[in-house]
Structure formats: structure tokens, C-alpha cells
Amino acid sequence: MRKEYREEDVSVDRNSTKNKIVYGGTAFMGKYFQPEIETASQDQIRQWQNERLVKQVKHVYDNVKMYRERMDELGVKPEDIKGVEDLHKLPFTTKDDLRDQYPYGLLATSLDNCVRIHSTSGTTGRRVVAFYTQHDLDLWDDCCARAIVAAGGSEKDVVHVCYGYGLFTGGSGLHGGSHRLGALTLPMSSGNTDRQIQFMTDLGSTILCCTPSYAAYLAESIIERGMRDKIKLKAGIFGAEAWTEEMRHDIEKKLGIKAYDIYGLTEISGPGVSFECEEQSGMHINEDHFIAEVIDPKTGEVLPDGEKGELVFTSITKEAFPLLRYRTRDICILSHKKCSCGRTHVKMTKPLGRSDDMLIVKGVNVFPSQIESVLLNQGYDPNYQIVVTRKNNSDNIKVQVEMSDAMVSESADQLNAREKKLVSGLKGMLGILAEVNLVVPKTITRSEGKAVRVIDMRNLYENK
Ligand code: DLL
Q1: pLDDT digit string (tens) for 37-84?
Q2: How confident is the model at residue 449 (pLDDT cuts 50, 70, 90)?
Q3: pLDDT digits (tens, 9 = 90+) for 155-189
Q4: How many whole angstroms separate alpha carbon 171 and alpha carbon 163?
Q5: Which of 40, 139, 358, 379 shows the smallest number of beta carbons within 10 Å?
Q6: What is the pLDDT of residues 354-381, one digit of tens each?
Q7: How far apart are CA 333 and CA 293, in angstroms?
Q8: CA 268 to ligand 1 centroid distance, Å
Q9: Where in the chain is the domain with CATH 3.30.300.30?
């Protein structure tokens, strides 16, 4: 049934990606990975979106009970959706929906057709899992290949991927994009900085893919080891967490490269939902696969271009895990202004904040509620504060927890043991190491309104 997408997909000949990409008689020599898509007229993009949305809505209505029920409740039938102008009639999807439907509730195809699963970091009881058919992976690879080419990449490059591999989408996403492009791919995964630098110098890595904080750390380590003139890097593709322009300039200067942003989320596929081009001002959203809206997070009202609000995506080509109007909680601004790179797809700003309380610490998504559940499970009251700092480009998370009155009289050994137990509980829940300090009762300032649970001292989001 999903064959239609394959026939109508506008894509370059898969076998020709080792060759020059020729468009309109001009050899772009890799300026775009899929020029006919990336530079299509906005009318053409709208037409693809209309056609694909109509099919997608029917697909989810026929195959996903939750969407069928939601649409029935709203009195919307698939036939009512004739194109993007009807998008607002469809229900939103939230992360809670994904948790509630864990694991198979939102699967829109038979499990036999799926070839891959990814999952978001964080381990609150029910995780968020996303499924992919081979076709979904192919389209995701295309998106990441577009990002690599936009960063100046070609089949001649050595793409050093040190995003984590595994359930996290970072490693597999950029890896797939690099393969699709025909570049030489170094599947390094994260960690082991000495080995990263050794491979980078021995094998002449030219494009670095990792989180911006790891890129900054690598840059420092390379300089410390006196290896700066041994590396051949020319570009970096950094994302998965917020980073500032200052950080970009710092990394660019230290490594002598151009640093490009890349955005994405597991629920929608992974990295490559949008990516930066040579202008380095905003990320082009792959609109042939994802329809983007910006809404007022409080009212759900759709906002016009240029207004700041919560980013919402509808995936229009996904087979296995298609989401309608998924609320990302990322605060952004969209712009259809002409871009000097020639790409026509709408641009989003870097995320300017979140409309929920999710933190990204050491690349891992952390919700204060996860921390709270560990504390409560170990018999503490919910009087705590989370302090996040960044030193030498490395994140540190500290949780201050109030003792009960009875605990105050315990010995230092007993309290140490308590702290250790909390550290290990948090490691199990979050997957990262958090420092824990037990503090005397009533130390943590009580709030008259919403409790201030998180003090994030990193200032990651620029004020716009
Ligand atoms: O972080 C996917 C990814 C991997 C993107 C590698 C880019 C590079 P999740 O773990 O599901 O997926 O986290 C998604 O991370 O909603 C944003 O809040 C944040 N995020 C992702 N990219 C950026 C970015 C991956 N470039 C969540 N700038 C998203 C700021 C980002 N925040």
C-alpha cells in the first residue's frame, strides 16, 4: 500500500551519487544532494506536501487506533483533509501520547515491515520508541546526506561520526547520510578521546559529526596534545543540544573549520529534520518530508512566520511511525525569506528554549520528574533543586536533596551511603552521573508559586 510514495518520491538516482549532481544543465558539483528537491519552488513543495498529507492522514486513520479515535472525537474524516490548509483540523500529538502508546500503539504498519527501532534517552518507566521501515531509513539517510552536502561534504570526504551509536539516533543518522553520499564513514561512536584524535589524524577525517560540547572538548584536547596542524578537518555538523554563536566561533577558531548546526528528534526520525547551509543562519527544514508549524504553546493557535512559538511537525512520508502535529516543545521561529544558498525550504532558528522543563545534559534528555521519582522512591520528600553547570565544555548536574529531620542525626557514613544510593538510582534512571548533596531540612528555598526545581547556569539559549 505504501508503494505510492516510492513512485512519487523525487530523488536523485541512487546509483549516481558518486557522480556529479547535474541540475538544469549546470554541474553543481555537490552543492546540493538532491537539487531538484532542495531548490524546488515553494509551489512545488506545497504540492508535494498536499498530496503526501492526504495520503498520510488516510494511512494513520486506517492503521492507528489512537488517531482514528481522536479524529472521530473531533468529527474529522480523512476526506476532510485536502491539503496543508486543513492541517489545523487535525489533533496534536504529545510526548505523553507516545509514552501512553508504548510500545506498539502508534505503529502504522506491520511489525514485519519494520527493520529498526530507536529510542529517546531517559528511562522513565515507559520510554519513547520509534520504528522505521527500510523506506523510512532510506529517506532519513537522504535528509542526513543533504545536511552533509550543505556543510560542504562530498563523496571525497572522510566523515568522522562520534555521535553515540545505539538507541540514540545521532550515530546511525549521520552514518546513514554519509553512506548515502558515498563518503568514507568512520563509525567512531562517542568517547575515548585519544582514539578519536588518533583516527582523525591517521585517517584524515575531514568532517566531524558530534555534539557541540564534545566538539569543543575535542578541540581543546587536540590543542593540548599539540596536534592542531595534524588534523585535516574542514567542517563540523553539530547538534542534539543547544549551543550558542559564541560556542560556534570558539570551535571554528580552535579547529579551523566551519561549524554547522543540525536539528532533529527521535520521534520525527532523528538528526536531519533540518540543517544549516553555508549562510549559517537558521536551518532548512526538509519540507518534502515534514510539515512544520509554529504554535502558541498555551492556546495551540498557529502563528505566522516570524513569530516565536512551539515547533510542531507532521511527518508526511514516514511509513512505520508517522506522527500528526507532533508538539516538539522546542521554541523556534520559522522564516520563508529567500536564502542565498539557493535552497527554498523554510528555515527555523536554532531552538530558543523549551516550552516544557526538559534539560539536555551531556547530550541526554533529562526531565526533573525523573529525578523526583528516584528521590521519592528512596523515601525523600520532593524538596530538591537541580543545578546544571558547564565547565570546560563539559556539563555537570548536581542534585541537592533535603534530608528529613530524622536523617539529621545519622552518622557521616550513613549519609555517605545514602548519597551513593541516590547517585546510583539517578544513574540507573538517567544514564548519566549526577552529583548528589544531602542538605539540612528547610535549606532549599520554598517558592510561593511554581517551585524552582532547576537552576541552569549554562545560558545555552541566546536571547532573541
Ligand atoms: O537529539 C537527534 C539529533 C542527533 C539531532 C544528532 C541532531 C544531531 P533526541 O535525543 O530525541 O534527538 O532529542 C531531541 O534535542 O527536541 C531538541 O530539544 C534537542 N535538539 C536537537 N537538535 C538540536 C539543536 C536528537 N541543533 C531534542 N539545537 C530536540 C538545540 C537540539 N537543540
Answers
A1: 999 999 999 999 999 999 999 999 999 999 999 999 999 999 999 999
A2: low
A3: 999 999 999 999 999 999 999 999 999 999 999 99
A4: 5
A5: 379
A6: 888 899 998 888 988 889 889 989 999 8
A7: 10
A8: 11
A9: 360-456
Pocket test for ligand 1, best of 265, 280, 357 (most atoms within 8 A of CB): 265
Q: How far apart are CA 435 and CA 30, in angstroms?
A: 47
What's the gap in Å between 144 CA and the centre of ligand 1?
14
DSSP-based three-state secondary structure for 103: coil
- CATH, range 360-456: 3.30.300.30
* Residue 421 identity (one-letter amino acid): K
Position with higher pLDDT, 355 vs 418: 418
Confidence of residue 462 (pLDDT cuts 50, 70, 90): low
Residues of the chain with CATH 3.40.50.12780: 11-355
How, if at all, do strands 235-239 and 309-315 pair? unpaired
The residue nearest atom 20 of ligand 1, judged by CA position, is 240
Ligand 1 mean position to 463 CA, how many Å? 19
SS3 category, 50: helix
- State the distance from the centre of ligand 1 to the C-alpha of 369, rounded, in angstroms: 20
**Mutate-to-test residue for ligand 1 from 99, 128, 241, highest number of ligand atoms within 8 A of CB:** 241
Ligand 1 centroid–CA 448 distance in Å is 33
Q: Residue 209's pLDDT band (boundaries 50, 70, 90)?
A: very high
Residue with the smallest CA separation from ligand 1 atom 18 is 330
Output phi, psi for 216, to 5 deg: -65, -40
Residues with beta carbon inside 6 Å of ligand 1? 120-121, 163, 169-170, 239-242, 261-266, 270-271, 328, 330, 350-351, 360, 365
Task: Kindly list the distances between the CA atom of residue 390 and the CA atoms of 32, 224, 247, 267, 363, in Å, as whole numbers in the listed order.
Answer: 36, 19, 12, 27, 12
pLDDT interval class at 450 (50, 70, 90): low
Name which of 170, 172, 347 is nearest 274 in CA terms. 347
CA dist 377 and 287 (Å) reads 44
DSSP state of 437: E
Which of 258-294 are b and which e, b meaning 16 or more Cβ less than 10 Å from the residue's Cβ?
Answer: bbbbbbbbbbbbbbbbbbbbbebbbbbbbbbbbbbbb
Task: Give the Å distance between the CA of 363 and the centre of ligand 1.
Answer: 8
11-355 folds as: Rossmann fold (3.40.50)
Instruction: Convert the pLDDT of each residue in 280-321 to its tens digit.
Output: 999 999 999 999 999 999 999 999 999 999 999 999 999 999
